[in-house]
Amino acid sequence: MINQKIIFTLCVCIASSAACVSAENEAQPRLPNIVLMMSDDQGWGDVGFNGNADIITPNLDSMAKNGVRFDRFYAAAPLCSPTRGSCLTGRFPFRYGILAAHTSGLRVGETTIAEMLKSKGYSNGFFGKWHIGWVKPDELGTRGHYSPPSHHGFDEVFATTSAVPTWDPTVTPKGWDSKSNKVGEPWKGGFPYMHNGKEATENLEGDDSRVIMDRVIPFIERNKEQPFFVTVWFHTPHEPVVAGEQYKKLYAKRGQSRQNYYGAITAMDEQIGRLRDKLRELGVEKDTLVFFCSDNGPSDGAAKKGIASAGPFKGHKHQMYEGGVLVPACAEWPGVIKPDTKTDVRVSTIDYFPTIAGIVGYSFSSQKSRTIDGIDLMPVISGKVVRRDRDLFFGFRRLHDEIDGKSIISGDFKLLREAKPNGQVRLYDLSRDPFEEHDLAAEMPDVLAKMMQSLEALEASCQLSRDGADYSY
Questions:
Q1: Average pLDDT over every residue of 22-43
Q2: Which ranges carry the Sulfatase N-terminal domain (predicted)?
């Protein structure tokens, strides 16, 4: 069951990390570059390496084959903003207080991967959808505040606050007409991208994934001689999901919705291939660990229409079932991660921070020590760890709508409370019932009670963190 307080301490040299120096004056070997890529609302089944024969994703498939495929990789929440914070902090969203989309912003008291790596001499770049705080200082909103990537350790920033159209990101597309967005007019009233503190106004036409990668590539080229950390959070395939004609033609026999959805994913995959090619062109691919995942399961509407796919798993975005939190994920590090590696150990977005900390030899000072909920993925990838040793906790909350979805996985059992108002509490044995077809809540009251106690203890621990236990004032 859970450890209520896990004080995160990592020694400088870990088996999965770069080699330690053998003498005090010996030069440190170069620390690896780190790339974190994430798609938006892409379901577990919306990629070739998880068995989708309809969507063309050759670069992601190659990446998974050349490295590790995570068969049970979980987003920390079944929606966007909470998961994004978990990627950078290694902590459950309920611990740092971003419980839903467009809610609050990442606190400067949190320590991010970027801040960790800056202390190790890295140059850090953020590119794409931020969504854990406003990126424009004069942007006013009723449910959030200004907290851009530059406040959290990133040197180069090309970011939007939230979603944009996946084709022509500054223009409201057809089929997307509302009070604030009229077809053909500027998206949300102006230019959504901020580039190092200024509104970007050039090179914003066409595929949004290409627009993002056009800023990523020069950053990598400029920093190839030193360790770099690149976070690339694509908007694809979040709505408004639109593909260019050349990508829609690849799916000409499909309906318009699938042409846009599939085409946008293929366009994103093309840009992922462009990044991988650049690493090889520069000769730094063996010095670079590249991760990919999605931020949550497929969107409600696209999943219900059968356009997006959670594979064989139940549920979608905004639901606590596996389809809402289980996402496609892989990683590549030539020469370190063996090709064709697969693992079904349950891992998560909260595991990025401790994994990277282990690789670079980072530990918290005694003044900044805090609970880290994730585990080091390198022993999982190497096969030394075959079972997670701590619980996973998921959730999102909008109490004014009576939405309080929560879930905990402990061992093979999963307890969940449905997110909808007055949601049912359910219990599943994922080892025997991975698709959550048989609710065991009535059949196993003792297990249910024990899981409820674990959930309550974990949530209480998170509330202490959220209320200031982990921050100095």
A1: 79
A2: 32-362
Residues 323-337 pLDDT 10s: 999 999 999 999 999
Q: Give yes or no: residues 314 and 396 share one domain.
A: no
From 382, 416, 438, give the residue that closes a domain.
382
Q: What CATH number is attached to the domain comprising 68? A: 3.40.720.10
The CA distance from 217 to 72, in Å, is 30
On whether both 280 and 149 belong to a single domain, the answer is yes
DSSP for 30-82 reads PPPEEEEEEESS--TTSSGGGT-SSS--HHHHHHHHHSEEETTEE-SSSSHHH
pTM: 0.92
Domain hosting 440: range is: 392-467
Co-location of 398 and 253 in the same domain: no
Per the annotation, the verdict on 131 as an active-site residue is yes
- pLDDT, position 158: 98
Residue 156 lies inside a defined structural domain of this protein? yes
- Residue 318 falls in the annotated catalytic set: no
- Which among 448, 437, 438 is positioned nearest to 415, based on CA atoms? 448
Task: Give the domain-ending residue among 317, 350, 382.
Answer: 382
Q: Are residues 315 and 404 in the same domain?
A: no
Model confidence pLDDT, tens digit, residues 166-207: 999 999 998 876 666 788 888 887 899 999 999 999 999 999
Name the phi and psi angles at 300, rounded to 5: -55, -55
- Based on the domain organization, do 423 and 339 belong to the same domain? no
Q: Which residues pair with 185 in a beta bridge?
A: none
Within a 13 Å sphere around the CA of 37, how many CA atoms are in the beta-carbon half? 27
Find the catalytic residue in 11, 102, 131, 238: 131
Q: Are residues 327 and 442 in the same domain?
A: no
Residue 13, in any domain of the structure = no
User: Model confidence over 79-131: pLDDT tens digits?
Assistant: 999 999 999 999 999 999 999 998 889 999 999 999 999 999 999 999 999 99
Question: What mean pLDDT comes out for the span 405-430?
Answer: 94
The single residue of 80, 87, 293, 330 carrying the catalytic annotation is 80
What is the number of domains present in the chain? 2
pLDDT at residue 11 in the model: 36
Angle at 387 between CA 384 and CA 391, to 5 degrees: 135
Q: Are the C-beta atoms of 470 and 370 separated by less than 8 Å?
A: yes
CA distances from 31 to 285, 357, 374 (A): 13, 11, 22
Do 39 and 99 have their domain in common? yes
Token pair recorded at residue 439: 């609710």
Tell me, yes or no, whether 1 lies in a domain. Answer: no
